[in-house]
Design a protein that fits this description.
Oligomer: single chain
Structural class: mainly alpha
Helix content: over 70%
Strand content: under 5%
Distance between the termini: 4 Å
Largest sheet: none
Number of strands: 0
């Protein structure tokens, strides 16, 4: 009798876990909606978002560089702190440069982004033969990345004003959509718990 009761409780707990795992809370829905709205607002004001982004990146680099240098001083007795010193110094100099010359920082980051788009696209096209089942999808995404890279690199001045804001807006929008749909449980996951018993 005790064994049958224990088995029934185990089944109930498992079904309740499955039912709860696929549900989204109200906070998930609110967060997803907020992220979607913020993403749309950023896309509508891409130039302003780009300026805010470059200053954020500059201050983040400065703070990160200072933190690394402080850690290097604290751990100086442990040895092998040269990587922290070099990394902190590079981040600090980069952050100060971006904050003092935001226009140059924008152009530099846009140039790096365009080059990354181009390299990633060429790499995907070259490696598409290793994925026979989804070859066309890989090739298509690679071609799109190459076109984006060329578009950015050939229109560097215009792209530098909008690119970071557009990327930030798209990323925020995708995050919101993901939060809204990712935790949706599979159809039929909610089921009525059943108790089965066996004669003692």
């Amino acid at each position: 009798m005790f064994r049958a009761a224990g088995a029934g409780m185990g089944r109930r707990g498992q079904q309740m876990t499955m039912n709860g795992a696929g549900r989204r809370s109200g906070w998930d829905i609110v967060l997803g909606i907020v992220l979607v709205v913020v993403g749309l607002l950023v896309l509508a004001n891409a130039a302003l978002a780009t300026v805010v982004s470059i200053f954020f990146i500059g201050w983040a680099a400065v703070i990160g560089g200072i933190v690394l240098l402080v850690q290097a001083v604290v751990r100086r007795k442990e040895g092998s702190v040269w990587s922290m010193i070099v990394g902190g110094a590079v981040l600090l100099v980069l952050g100060i440069f971006v904050l003092r010359n935001p226009a140059a920082g924008l152009v530099t980051l846009t140039l790096v982004a365009g080059a990354l788009f181009l390299v990633v696209g060429v790499t995907r096209i070259a490696m598409s033969g290793a994925v026979p089942e989804g070859r066309w999808i890989v090739v298509t995404s690679g071609v799109i990345s190459v076109l984006l890279g060329l578009l950015v690199l050939l229109n560097l001045t215009t792209a530098s004003v909008l690119l970071l804001g557009i990327l930030l807006g798209v990323q925020t929008l995708l995050e919101g959509v993901t939060v809204l749909v990712a935790r949706r449980g599979p159809a039929g996951a909610v089921s009525t718990p059943r108790t089965t018993g066996a004669p003692a």
